[in-house]
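Each record in this resource describes a single protein on a pair of labelled lines. An example record follows, reproduced without changes.
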Amino acid sequence: MTSSIALNMFSYTILLLLTTIPTSFSAIVDPTEAIHRFLTYEETNEFLHTLALLFSGKVSVKKIGETALGRDINVININYNAKKKVILVANLHAREWAAMSSALYIISELVYNGDQYPELSQFRWMIIPMANPDGYEYTRIYDRYWSKNRSPQPNSRTFGVDLNGNFGYKWDENKYRVDPSSRTYNGPSAFSERESSAIGQLLNQHADNTILYVDMHTFGNHIFYPWGYTTDQVPDSGKSRAVAIVGADIIREKYREYYTVGTPAHLFQRTYGSSLDYCHSVGINVCLWFELTNVGFQIKESDIERFGQEAWAATTAMAVRANQIVDIFYPE
């Protein structure tokens, strides 16, 4: 299937804009690269900053933190003057490359083809496509199935924390000690990690007018809503469930893929210190955990666009639905 992004990229306007890019950003001048191969950390940042240069009237990039190894944690803002916000985070788990590439697909479509989707222009899209850059680069070079970040652990010879277990809500509810060498080690304390701390601060800062948060993962074909730490559902779970069902329905209708909807504790297992639960605890209206694909952690580069399209269809439909049902008044 030919991407609409590919069809638009050769427009005369874009070609003129590309000539203005400084040589320091010349590695990623073709926007289709971001949806046809897995980019490195450096290439991902170049891509984001290039978009900010080309579309400065609606796109900006902000560093929100720095990893233990000195890599930037960046958020791209699209339609940055809009009041209502949608926050997407991908790649908390390093090995989940399809989550990162799907986030880049969503970014590309919003930026290059945003005029085709007027219903989406009312939202400020805040997207962190690579939330765990140290871990991601480690999976590229050393261990494809590494999941944690790469922070040295105190009083241990081990490295890394499961970032999706390090957020500061019910972190200490897990009564079972997790060994630092374990893939699911949740850290010495809540928000001990720079990545989870930066994202937690972002969620806190923008909670009041964020209509939807989506934490993008792979794999399993699930859309979770809170809570993760208990089998109890949040009092207003019907709102999040309704939004999640819209995402699952559109994927089934368009791509014949079937996603289950429910809480992590019911469909998977109890999870403590997740970004999902933390998101709800700070008052964001609809918080979802999106497990993309059912084919495992490794996907072919030829499938990047396919899974990106599924993520795009579901995420945009969920944003529109969240906007319809969230009971917030935004003064003009």
About this structure: The mean pLDDT is 89. Strands lie at 59-66, 72-78, 84-90, 123-128, 210-218, 222-224, 260-262, 287-292.
